[in-house]
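tool_call: predict_structure(chain=1)
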Amino acid sequence: MADSRWNSSSPASPRRRGVPAWITVPLALLVGIAILVFAVAGRASGLRRQAWPLLQTVHKRIATDEGARELFRMNPACAEGYASEEAFLEAVRAWRPKVGALPAVEPTEDRKGYHVSADPFELTVAASGEGGGWLRVRFVTGPAAAGQDVGEGLTQLVFADSFRSLQDSSRLARRQVRSRQWAEFRGLTARLASDEAATALFRAEPGLRQGWLSEEAFLQETRSWRPFLAAIPESLADAEKDEATRAQFSRNQSPLGDSREIRLEHPGGVWKVTWRNGALAAISHRTR
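tool_result:
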């Protein structure tokens, strides 16, 4: 009689032997990494092809006062490198004849007259004109390189007499930006010193309502921060000299908007202020 049990002794089908997991998993990771590397390299190469047209566009716009003003207004990140629109315009007017016309065609890339730097985060282009002066522009990459980011994606425009001097001009511009940002940071935190000023701040900044449901909740928490207001140096220079404090500046630009943050570490804790699209979004203090 045939055995009707499920566990009858019929011969089992032979199992196929595949590639061991200890080989397939690392292999898949290596393939993924290779694809990512080639994608990033391809993107950087594509951005480099946009370098000269982007530089020409900026150069053409700053050839007139009207174009320079528009460039300033449409690129807030770049504008922060100058004290005001008039200061930007004054610099542009002074450097127009010093830079002069750009070459009719894209030059060979070298540090004598033309230089391009591209990575997944930014594109930097520098060139000298017929007048001998240099200009350098820096764009955030991604959509910004096509003019689709916050403003138009231009984050820096500086001038100098030589390629080497561009570094000094860049550092000076960055320093001016951070000094103004520090003054804004210092002014905001100072408004937490009293209930009256803190209440006015909460009412004037809609972004703060995402962190606190009511004025009273905001006041209750910020009152506990007041003993640490004295830890905030008056100026950025003071903060840099003070070995007990550490100031950090960060910025993130994306198609979703512009976000920047200042973080100050001190012995009693950490202050942090965040802005999104130019408006105050958050302020906090974490006690150690």
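agent: Residues 177-287 form one domain. Proceeding to next step.
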